[in-house]
């Protein structure tokens, strides 16, 4: 299911991606969390997105995309120092 949600997000079908993610049972899966964070960013829920990206980084500190996206979310919130820390 997470693979389908990832595809739907890439194709800009956020609503379908969100309904697909609701069917995922393992919500600690990194792919699930990544999709969830992307949906939060797309809906301008940047603080929540940062929290999810930080959760991913705790589990996988090599996920460079998550650092960048957490930085982008902090930037959108006006937290420029925090954004620089993630970049």
Secondary structure: helix percent: over 70%
Which band does the percent of strand residues land in? under 5%
Radius of gyration: 13 Å
- Could you say how many structural domains there are in total? 1
Write the CATH homologous superfamily: Tetratricopeptide repeat domain
Account of the 3D structure:
- The chain has 87 residues and is mostly helical.
- The chain has a single domain (2-86), classed as Serine Threonine Protein Phosphatase 5, Tetratricopeptide repeat, CATH 1.25.40.10.
- The chain has 6 helices and no strands.
- α1 packs antiparallel against α2 (14-21), α1 runs parallel beside α3 and α3 runs antiparallel to α4.
- The longest helix has 14 residues, at 46-59.
- The radius of gyration is 13 Å and the shape is globular.
């Amino acid at each position: 299911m997470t693979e389908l949600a990832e595809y739907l997000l890439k194709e800009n079908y956020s609503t379908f991606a969100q309904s697909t993610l609701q069917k995922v049972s393992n919500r600690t899966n990194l792919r699930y969390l990544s999709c969830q964070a992307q949906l939060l960013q797309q809906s301008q829920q940047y603080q929540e997105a940062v929290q999810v990206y930080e959760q991913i980084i705790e589990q996988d500190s090599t996920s460079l995309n998550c650092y960048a996206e957490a930085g982008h979310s902090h930037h959108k919130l006006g937290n420029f120092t925090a954004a620089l820390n993630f970049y």
